[in-house]
Amino acid sequence: MLCSRADLLTDNADLKHERKIKRILGWIFNFFIFIYIYKSKTMSDDIRKMIDKVKNFEQYLNEEKLKCMTLYHSTTQPISGQFRIKGNAGYGAYFAKSIKDSKTFGDITYKVKVCPQNILIFHDNEVKGKGFFNMSKEFYDKYISEGYDSLLWYRNGRFQEFIALKPEIIIDYEVMY
Q: Does the global pTM surpass 0.70?
């Protein structure tokens, strides 16, 4: 039996459509199996807790990893009293993870203990257009109104820079140089 080109194309399209439907049904089946295992206590409570933590990694970082940190702040002017959140270059007090990274901003370096409660985390180029550098009052007010007390930037998976938005998260500091 001879078939026209249109019939062959239609059969080919039907075959592709059928494969796509089978693939989607497979995903749905696997999803329901996972839900059944998760809900039916077949999975251990420890694994269930780990899955719950991975669901919101940034919340996990806020709760478990970043309770208190020792960071460094360098400046050209000595600090007396509380850190200023409004400075010459905008809002926020900027900190680095290492003395070396901090020293690019001044020759007086402070070792600082910060205990943030709610950090907004940026990865790589997410900081562009978010007011991270030389933060304006508008961005500062926005982050404060959203409940953040600090910002953290990871670049290529490495801690790059930390900004305190509220002075009360700066617990202690001492001059190093």
A: no
